[in-house]
Structure formats: C-alpha cells, structure tokens
Amino acid sequence: MNETSTHDPIPVQISVGRTMLEGDLATPEGARGVVLFAHGSGSSRHSSRNRFVAESLQAGGFATLLFDLLTEVEEYEERFTRHLRFDIELLTGRLIAATDWIEHRPETRGLKVGYFGASTGAAAALGAAAERLEVAAVVSRGGRPDLTPEPALVAVRAPTLLIVGGDDDTVIPLNRRAMAKLTAPTSLEIVPGATHLFEEPGTLEQVAKLAREWFERYL
User: Fold this and answer.
1) What 3 state SS string does the chain have?
2) What structural domains and CATH numbers belong to the chain?
3) What's the pTM value of the predicted model, to 2 decimals?
4) Of 47-61, 66-80, 150-164, 187-201, which range is least confident?
C-alpha cells in the first residue's frame, strides 16, 4: 500500500463544559478514518509512544487526534494527589466529548471513528465505545480494560484488539479477564519480550503494525 502524504498536526482546543482540553489533529489527504488517542495515567498528548503509533497510522491514511484528557492544572495536582488517573467515568466523558467534537470538524466529518487507548486510557476508550455505538474499532496498548465497568464491557460493539507485552505479567491476566466479558469481536495479541511500556527494541514497532492492520480492517 502506498504511504499517504500527511499534513503536519495542528494545535486544537476541545471544549468540555467549562473545561478546555489541548490537542493535536493530523489529517492526511483523503483520510480513510480518524483515530482518537486516550493516553494513560501520568501521560499526555506528547507521549512519544503514542506519537510513534499515530505517525504510523497517518502514513496509512488515518487522521489522528492526540489530546490531553486532563488540563495542565489537573495534571499538576495529579502528581501529588493521584485522584484523577483512575477516574474512568471522568476520562470516558471527556473522550465522548472529543468524539462529538471530531465528528463536527470539517476535515473529519463523515469519517469512521476508532479509539487507541493506553493503560487507563483503554478503560476510557471501551467505556466511550459502549456509549457511542458508531465507534468502529478499539485498540488497547498495555491497557487496563478491567477498569471498565462490566455493563459497559458487555455493551461494546466495536471490534477490539488488546495488545499486551509478553513480560507484562500483571496486565496479561487482567486483559484475559476483561476479554472474557467482551461480547464484541475481540483479539488478544501478546508481544514477546515486551514490558508494560514497550520500551524494548522493536516492540513498539510491532504495536504500531498491529494497530494499523486492525484499523485498516475495520475503519
């Protein structure tokens, strides 16, 4: 497949009630779908790992939205209190608001929507997919889908790919447990030799390849 020419990401702001979230939107020529990234706890739209995956998706013809689920003030407070990183209801609501926003953008209007969630962001992605049935696909990287409330897991209709590191001994069983509750088409891919952050050589490339193939199939 030919690589698609990509516009440089542009800074955007997403209004959620009185809260303003910062993001970066990249839209390739003739985009075939749009993927929203929900980062994990302690991370942001500047995550090098998510940006690596986003660039792979952009090259494959997908628009991407990387945005902060928390404001700068919330992120600062979170360093000391850690009171928001596991607030899945809050994170889910903000991802849904970003989905509403992206569906009304002229560059992405009418495109199929997918979610890429990492760590606790994966729980938010599944929670949002349960409420927004137009979401066409979900990919989780080192995710915590077990934190998604069970009624939401059962309600997800989007085909879901769970990617876990082979050496991430804590998270593998949590993903298997969540997978047993998901009724949507679901696949679990274990990347050999990878730990939770996929920092080992070549492992993040495998994540990007798996994610791109999943979105190519369903978006």
Assistant:
1) CCCCCCCCCEEEEEEECCEEEEEEEECCCCCCCEEEEECCCCCCCCCHHHHHHHHHHHHCCCEEEEECCCCHHHHHHHHHHCCCCCCHHHHHHHHHHHHHHHHCCCCCCCCCEEEEEECHHHHHHHHHHHHCCCEEEEEEECCCHHHCCHHHHHHCCCCEEEEEECCCCCHHHHHHHHHHHCCCCEEEEEECCCCCCCCCCCHHHHHHHHHHHHHHHHC
2) 10-218 (3.40.50.1820)
3) 0.93
4) 66-80
